[in-house]
Write a structure and sequence with these properties.
Layout: E1 3-7, H1 16-27, E2 31-38, E3 52-56, H2 62-78, E4 84-88, H3 93-103, H4 112-120, E5 132-136, H5 150-163, E6 170-172, H6 175-185, E7 189-191, E8 217-222, H7 231-237, E9 245-250, H8 256-265, E10 272-276, H9 280-287, E11 292-295, H10 302-305, H11 310-317, E12 322-324, H12 328-337, E13 340-342, H13 348-359, H14 362-378, H15 381-392
Parallel strand pairs: 1-2, 1-4, 2-3, 4-5, 5-6, 6-7, 8-9, 8-11, 9-10, 11-12, 12-13
Helix pairs in contact: 1-15, 2-3, 7-13
């Protein structure tokens, strides 16, 4: 049986896209090993249908972390048998590319001439067609954490410029990101959207478990608690909202602790709940509780502008109407299916007014929920997985 090693830089607790990729590989006949890293405060892993390995590193962040991670992963890959490597985002690419280059110096994954020859040849064993699949979860150099950090961005660009054009098999999270990379480097790039598994509309956790009264409405933000996600404005909006509602924030990130302090300073602790890191196996139970799902990123960079966030698609699977930023990928889905509305401003007063309007319009909510049922049937991994299997079959 062919063996696939999938690598990420996170601690494997919450990454749903990678879990779906691993399951798709297993369904396609691969043995799968998922490799990540262990943080000092990492939760214990919930067992899955495939094995996982978390590397222990000295550094948790910064350039020394990325250097240590890639060096450690490089030697790990050299010492393990594989038939397929799957790198996720630029921060795992150097180790995967170099390990594959050492083990398979004449493969089409890093040789233009070989790439052309491989396309002309007809290989009967489909598992031998792809040795390295690179998955772009986002336009990496456009992440907010790199905005304004010119030196750091130059380093990542230097790495990307030397590796990306040589990659034969690349997929991206949506068409916008695929187009960006294709225009920049000329690669043919497939699209595997970050859609969730089809999920039942049952299994919601009780509001009482969060100390929320049954009659109170829930406005949910789930996902990374990082800069420019509109979370601060959502918190401030709770000062002005007239509806009896609670803002629930499920996730952790760079500004998690500062937002908790900010909420206390604004005396909004009774109107905002911080759930911390939630294993993705439990997340659907919380999402089902919500009346509105937020994805109100700010337009601070190319990566946010073309985002198609996990949370947005999770809301759809949970039959939760959405309030989102009018960015191209989300806008096309909201417009096509009619599953929610767009913010006009991040101003907390206007945001509160918009939330009040949505929460107090049962007729429109009923229409959104009906439309969400159709969207959930089509925007699910059971449909999207077929695209990934096609790529693994060489149908790029």
């Amino acid at each position: 049986m062919p063996f696939a090693i999938v690598s990420v830089t996170n601690d494997l607790t919450t990454d749903q896209r990678v879990d779906r990729t691993c399951r798709a590989l297993a369904n396609s006949g691969y043995e799968v090993l998922l490799v990540g890293r262990r943080l000092r405060k990492s939760n214990a892993l919930v067992p899955r249908s495939y094995p996982m390995h978390r590397m222990r590193l000295l550094f948790d962040s910064g350039p020394l972390f990325y250097a240590e991670y890639n060096i450690t992963l490089f030697f790990f890959l050299l010492l393990h048998r594989y038939d397929l490597l799957v790198s996720n985002d630029l921060d795992t690419l150097p180790a995967n590319y170099l390990a594959n280059l050492v083990k398979h110096p004449f493969s089409g994954s890093h040789n233009r001439k070989s790439k052309i020859e491989n396309r002309k040849s007809k290989i009967e064993n489909r598992k031998s067609k792809i040795l390295h699949l690179h998955d772009c979860h986002e336009y990496f150099r456009g992440v907010p954490e790199l905005v304004g950090r010119k030196k750091t961005t130059r380093i990542w660009r230097w790495i990307e410029d030397r590796i990306f054009p040589k990659l034969s098999h690349v997929v991206a999270v949506n068409q916008s990101v695929a187009d960006l990379y294709s225009r920049e480097y000329g690669n043919q790039i497939g699209v595997i959207r970050n859609v969730p598994f089809r999920k039942p509309l049952c299994g919601a956790f009780s509001k009482a478990s969060l100390n929320i009264r049954e009659e109170q409405k829930i406005i949910l933000y789930q996902g990374a608690v990082n800069v420019d996600r509109g979370i601060e404005q959502a918190i401030l909006a709770m000062q002005h909202i007239k509806t009896d509602a609670i803002l629930v924030i499920a996730g952790i990130g760079d500004i998690y602790e500062s937002l908790r302090n900010f909420t206390s300073e604004q005396r909004l602790a009774e109107k905002v709940r911080f759930l911390g890191q939630i294993p993705f196996q439990d997340l659907h139970g919380y999402t089902l509780m919500a009346d509105i799902g937020l994805s109100i990123e700010k337009d601070v960079g190319i990566n946010y502008h073309f985002c198609l966030p996990n949370k947005f698609l999770d809301y759809i699977q949970a039959n939760v109407p959405v309030l989102v930023s009018p960015f191209p990928e989300m806008k096309s889905i909201v417009d096509h299916y009619g599953v929610g509305e767009f913010i006009e401003s991040h101003d907390p007063v206007k945001l509160a007014a918009h939330l009040d309007t949505m929460l107090n319009n049962p007729e429109k909510t009923a229409v959104y929920k009906q439309n969400l049922l159709k969207a959930a049937e089509e925007l699910c991994w059971e449909v999207e997985e077929k695209r990934l299997v096609g790529i693994l079959d060489g149908k790029f």
